[in-house]
Task: inverse folding
């Protein structure tokens, strides 16, 4: 009598399982990295917005005009973000480190009766188009669509001293 032979050879099973799971793991890994970079850049523009507002509300003699205030806040925000933002787009002018950086957009507004004076409020809004590195490319592989950039924004309101 012959005994039934069972097939116990499992060669290649782990390779097939890995091939099924690998795309999901890559999307998860790059999603975590992209999300972390986006959150870091959001924190940087939030801090830059605060720094610009702080620099703008300080009492100065003689008092700044609106264009001078706008330029002061813009310079403060640009100086803060130049060395801190992490960007992977290569379309704009180089920053101090030699890498490419898209500059943030800075909007200022003064709300008050007397123009720029003690008690009036200064609103600083910073917008930064964050470009994803790999996430849209991964989604394109599986026929998905996703925008390559998102607009990160921060707004700070402070009163003049």
Result:
């Amino acid at each position: 009598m012959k005994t039934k032979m069972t097939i116990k050879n499992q060669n290649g099973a782990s390779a097939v399982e890995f091939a099924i799971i690998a795309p999901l793991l890559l999307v998860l890994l790059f999603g975590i990295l992209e999300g972390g970079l986006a959150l870091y850049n959001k924190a940087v523009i939030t801090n830059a917005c605060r720094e610009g507002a702080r620099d703008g509300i300080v009492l100065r003699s003689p008092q700044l005009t609106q264009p001078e205030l706008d330029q002061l806040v813009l310079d403060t925000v640009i100086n803060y973000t130049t060395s801190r933002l992490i960007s992977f787009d290569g379309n704009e002018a180089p920053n101090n480190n030699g890498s490419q950086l898209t500059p943030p957009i800075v909007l200022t507004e003064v709300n008050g009766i007397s123009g720029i004076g003690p008690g009036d409020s200064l609103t600083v809004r910073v917008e930064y188009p964050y470009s994803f590195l790999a996430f849209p490319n991964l989604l394109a592989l599986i026929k998905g669509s996703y925008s390559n950039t998102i607009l990160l924004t921060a707004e700070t309101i402070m009163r003049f001293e």
User: Anything to note?
Assistant: Strands lie at 105-111, 121-131, 149-159. The two ends are 101 Å apart (CA to CA). The helical segments are 13-57, 66-82, 135-141. The chain has three helices and three strands.
